[in-house]
């Protein structure tokens, strides 16, 4: 192999290594962006969970004061809910796992409704 061919081969290898290095840098930047986005979404999800917990507790506290004014049908729904069943239109009839609160059910039972005439 002559010197010129060896130099050309070395130059081709150098170009390929450089291209792989550039690709690696691009992938690393995209990975960093995904990690940042994932972290942001995790924080936002935690804030939303905290907000749901707060609103659920607030609705449950308000439910105690509303209870005497509830209609018979809402009292029946409340009894089903307390027995561990969903009464919302999303999960109706299915069991509530570990008696977790369901904002949809609480809205059906204690939420304010427009009065139709």
Count of domain modules: 2
Radius of gyration: 30 Å
Structural class: mainly alpha
Mean pLDDT: 87
Major sheet characteristics = none
Question: Could you list the spans in which at least 5 consecutive residues all have pLDDT below 50?
Answer: none
- The rounded distance between the terminal residues' Cα atoms is 98 Å
What is the string of SSEs from the N terminus onward? HHH
Instruction: Give the % helix.
Output: over 70%
Beta content comes to under 5%
Number of helices: 3
Structure summary, number of beta strands? 0
Shape verdict: rod-shaped
Descriptors for this entry?
cytoplasm, 71% helix, zinc, DNA replication inhibitor, 117 residues, mainly alpha
Can you describe this structure in just a few lines?
It is found in: Cytoplasm, Nucleoid. It comes from Jeotgalibaca ciconiae. The chain is mainly alpha-helical and 117 residues long.
Could you characterize what this model shows?
The protein is mostly helical. It has two domains: 1-69; 70-117, no CATH class. Helices cover 71% and strands 0% of the residues. It has three helices and no strands. Helix 1 packs parallel to helix 3. The longest helix has 64 residues, at 3-66. It is rod-shaped, with a radius of gyration of 30 Å. It starts with a helix and ends in a 7-residue tail after the last helix.
């Amino acid at each position: 192999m002559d010197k010129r061919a060896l130099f050309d081969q070395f130059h081709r290898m150098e170009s390929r290594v450089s291209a792989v290095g550039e690709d690696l840098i691009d992938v690393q930047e995209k990975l960093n962006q995904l990690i940042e986005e994932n972290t942001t979404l995790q924080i936002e999800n935690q804030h939303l969970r905290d907000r749901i917990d707060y609103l659920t507790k607030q609705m449950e506290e308000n439910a105690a004061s509303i209870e005497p004014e509830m209609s018979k049908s809402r009292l029946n729904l409340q009894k089903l809910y307390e027995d561990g069943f969903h009464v919302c239109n999303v999960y109706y009839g299915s069991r509530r796992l570990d008696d977790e609160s369901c904002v949809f059910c609480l809205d059906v039972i204690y939420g304010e409704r427009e009065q139709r005439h």
